[in-house]
Design goal:
By secondary structure, the protein is an alpha/beta fold. It has helices spanning 17-29, 40-46, 66-75, 91-99, 112-126, 158-168, 177-183, 194-211; strands at 9-13, 33-37, 52-57, 60-61, 64-65, 81-86, 104-107, 136-140, 145-147, 154-155, 174-176, 217-220, 224-227, 230-234. The chain has two domains: 9-126, Response regulator (Rossmann fold, 3-Layer(aba) Sandwich); 136-234, Winged helix-like DNA-binding domain superfamily/Winged helix DNA-binding domain (Arc Repressor Mutant, subunit A).
Length: 235
């Protein structure tokens, strides 16, 4: 069983009484302090951004949809680890949850030890005592966002994330077009490379509009691209 690296307060939102009690008992046994609610109204009333570090949320609730709560929390800029635990296990639901700001998305059929491991990994990331230097760009794989130095986190699409991951893991060196296209899961010979150029323009514009900074990527004409700043990649 995985255990958190430090004591964290968890707020649990689950409307099924038996499952809520089971999860409370399990998470308490893992070392977390747990507050549990069964409705969106109860969550909003109980949630303390100073005390609660992680939220475990169901989506189908008696007074609304948990996705709207995630959207609300992220719009307020809450630095809260969010794990969705729901019966909605389809790919489309999972993508929707991650797109609006969930850090992880698990089906209720998941083993409880998988939940514990997910929370422990999230706790490690949230508790990282060594902030990056002021010139460092951070790519967060789980939350799927780019953290520019001194700026707000920028939400990324799956394709954005894949391209930036390939560039930032090779920071300082050229990532060839072939490498990037392969990472995207496409065939280099049949891929229309104008799509990659368009992708890069969109990424640069997204960063500029989000934080007013220039994305530190140079173009090596007909060869590839180079991320020329200090880069950190986090799970």
């Amino acid at each position: 069983m995985a255990y958190p690296i430090r004591m964290l307060d968890v707020i649990l939102l689950e409307d099924e009484t038996v499952l809520r009690e089971e999860l409370c008992e399990f998470l308490t046994g893992c070392g977390y302090r747990v507050d549990a609610e069964s409705s969106l109204e109860g969550f909003r009333r109980r949630f303390d951004p100073v005390r609660h570090g992680i939220a475990v949320l169901d989506l189908g609730l008696p007074d609304g949809d948990g996705l709207s709560l995630i959207r609300e929390l992220r719009a307020r800029g809450e630095r809260l680890g969010i794990v969705v635990l729901t019966a909605r296990g389809g790919a489309r639901d999972r993508i929707a949850g991650l797109d609006i700001g969930a850090d992880h998305y698990l089906a209720k059929t998941s083993d409880l030890d998988e939940l514990a491991a997910t929370l422990a990994a999230l706790a490690r990331r949230l508790a990282d005592p060594s902030p990056p230097s002021v010139n460092t760009w951070v790519l967060e794989l789980g939350p799927r966002c780019l953290q520019p130095p001194g700026g707000p986190a920028i939400a990324l699409s799956e394709q954005d994330l894949t391209v930036l991951h390939e560039l930032m893991r090779n920071a300082g060196n050229i990532a060839t077009r072939r490498q990037i296209i392969k990472a995207l899961g496409d065939d280099f010979l049949s891929y229309d490379q104008r799509r990659l150029d368009t992708q890069m323009r969109r990424l640069r514009r997204k960063v500029d509009e989000s934080c007013g900074q220039i994305l530190p990527i140079n173009t090596a004409r007909n060869v590839g691209y180079r991320f020329h700043a200090k880069a950190v990649i986090r799970p």
